[in-house]
C-alpha cells in the first residue's frame, strides 16, 4: 500500500534556513566526488535528474558539457546554491 505524501509549508525565512543548512551539510559530505554526473548532482540537490538539467538551462546551474552529458563540479554547485536566495525570500 502506497504511503500518503507529506506536505510541508515553510515561510521564506524557514526555506532560506533549510537551504543554508543543506548547503553546509553538503559542503562537508564526502560521499560525493568533486566531479559529479547528472544523477549525482540530482541526489545532492534532492531533485529528479531531469530537473537538474532544467536548472542548467533555466537557472544557470554551473555545468560542463562532455559529449552528450553534463558534468558538475560539486564545489561550483554548492557555491551557486549558497549565493542564490530561496524563492520568495525577502
Question: What is this structure's SSE topology?
Answer:
Blueprint: H1 12-28, E1 35-36, H2 38-45, H3 49-59, E2 64-66, E3 69-73, H4 74-83
Antiparallel strand pairs: 1-3, 2-3
Helix pairs in contact: 1-4, 2-3
Explain the overall architecture:
- The protein has about 90 residues and is mainly alpha-helical.
- It has a domain at about 30-85: Arc Repressor Mutant, subunit A, CATH 1.10.10.
- It is about 50% helix and about 10% strand.
- It has a three-stranded antiparallel β-sheet.
- It is globular, with a radius of gyration of 14 Å.
- About 10% of the residues are buried.
- The mean pLDDT is about 85.
Short description:
The longest helix is centred in the first third of the chain and has 17 residues, at 12-28. The chain has 90 residues and is mainly alpha-helical.
Count all strands and give the number: 3
**In the CATH classification, which architecture of the domain at 32-83 applies?**
Orthogonal Bundle
Low-confidence stretches: none
Order of helices and strands: HEHHEEH
Strand content: 5-15%
Amino acid at each position: 500500500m502506497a504511503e500518503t505524501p507529506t506536505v510541508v509549508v515553510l515561510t521564506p525565512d524557514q526555506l532560506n534556513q533549510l537551504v543554508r543548512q543543506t548547503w553546509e551539510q553538503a559542503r562537508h559530505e564526502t560521499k560525493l566526488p568533486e566531479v559529479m554526473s547528472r544523477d549525482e548532482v540530482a541526489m545532492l540537490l534532492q531533485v529528479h535528474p531531469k530537473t537538474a538539467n532544467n536548472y542548467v538551462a533555466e537557472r544557470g546551474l554551473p555545468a560542463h558539457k562532455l559529449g552528450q552529458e553534463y558534468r558538475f563540479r560539486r564545489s561550483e554547485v554548492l557555491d551557486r546554491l549558497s549565493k542564490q536566495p530561496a524563492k520568495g525570500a525577502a
